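Technical annex, item 7. During the second reporting period the consortium partners agreed on a shared format for inverse folding records so that results from different sites could be compared directly. Each record opens with the tokenized structure and is followed by the designed sequence. A conforming record, contributed by the partner at site C, is shown below for reference.
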């Protein structure tokens, strides 16, 4: 499969979310699973802890977040939930992103997403069922 047009993919997701009364808030795990399915890459994630703040870093602090890293780039289609751009494709490292999730954490978090949410997002993004 060819590398997806990230802006077009985000526009499709926006249409899908609007149809279901949603926004990008809380969608990072689902969108990262979709990106991983479409492109491969490494799922990264993090969350704020007292000892190692991880996730997406803003002036307001650290936020629980997932994103994809592929070929030396960060791909994130849901950073706008934290006031950033809706499509981020930037070289690694980037100070906004601090991974701290272990592979075991990621596996547990993605187990249900892959089985339940991913098929619906794939249909929305490939068949026009938005």
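Designed sequence (site C submission):
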């Amino acid at each position: 499969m060819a590398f997806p047009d990230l802006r077009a993919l985000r526009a499709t997701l926006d249409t899908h979310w609007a149809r279901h009364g949603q926004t990008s808030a809380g969608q990072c795990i689902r969108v990262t699973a979709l990106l991983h399915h479409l492109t491969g890459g490494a799922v990264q994630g993090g969350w704020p802890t007292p000892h190692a703040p991880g996730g997406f870093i803003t002036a307001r602090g650290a936020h629980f977040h997932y994103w994809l890293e592929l070929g030396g780039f960060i791909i994130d289609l849901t950073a706008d939930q934290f006031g950033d751009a809706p499509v981020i494709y930037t070289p690694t490292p980037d100070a906004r992103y601090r991974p701290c999730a272990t592979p075991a954490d990621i596996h547990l978090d993605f187990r249900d997403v892959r089985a339940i949410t991913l098929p619906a997002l794939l249909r929305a993004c490939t068949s026009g069922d938005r």
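The chain has three helices and seven strands. The two ends are 21 Å apart (CA to CA). All partners now use this format for quarterly exchanges.
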